[in-house]
Amino acid sequence: MMIRPIHVFATVLACLVVSSAWVKQGNAANECGETPIPVAAASMSPCLGAARNLEARVTQPCCSMVEALIRTAPRCLCDVILSPLARLAGLKPGIAITIPKRCDIQNRYVGEKCGHYVVP
Predict the structure, then answer these.
(1) Is 117:93 a contact under the CB 8 Å cutoff?
(2) What phi and psi, each to the nearest 5 degrees, are found at residue 114?
(3) How many CA atoms lie less than 13 Å away from 108 in the CB half-sphere?
């Protein structure tokens, strides 16, 4: 089987199109600003227990992280809660959205929508 230049060109072009789309998706504007949502989601690791179980105690490291996230990028928490990485980690959005209230964070945008959820 002979490899023709047109096949090589087509393959290279397809790779460029796919990689370009991937880079655009990775750099897409989001509510977390310059921080990619997966990185912000990974920073929620101290909150996993509290984001899975409404009865779980919210730790101080979790509250500090959430408060800093809300202060620097208020809507970022919503993007993180609804992200695929959070879902993979077992985070439950309906419970996770209550963490700012459970931490007694004053500036938590009460009543604002986050997907199907409302900030308590």
Answers:
(1) yes
(2) -135, 95
(3) 19
What is the DSSP code string of 18-58? Answer: HHHHHHHHHT---TTTTS-HHHHHHTTGGGHHHHH-TTSPP
99 class by beta-carbon count within 10 Å (0-12 exposed, 13-18 middle, 19+ buried): buried
- Long-range contacts (CB closer than 8 Å, 24 or more residues apart) made by 56-62: 58/99, 58/102, 58/103, 62/99, 62/103
The DSSP H or E segment spanning 113 is strand 113-114
Measured distance CA(29)–CA(71) in Å, rounded: 18
C-alpha closest to that of 52 among 96, 86, 115: 96
- Rounded to whole angstroms, how far apart are CA atoms 117 and 120? 9
What's the pLDDT at 2? 55
Distance, CA of 63 to chain centre: 17
For the residues of 92-106, what is the DSSP string, one character each? Answer: -HHHHTTHHHHTT-S
Give 57-68 pLDDT, tens digit per residue: 999 999 999 998
Q: What is the pTM of this model?
A: 0.71
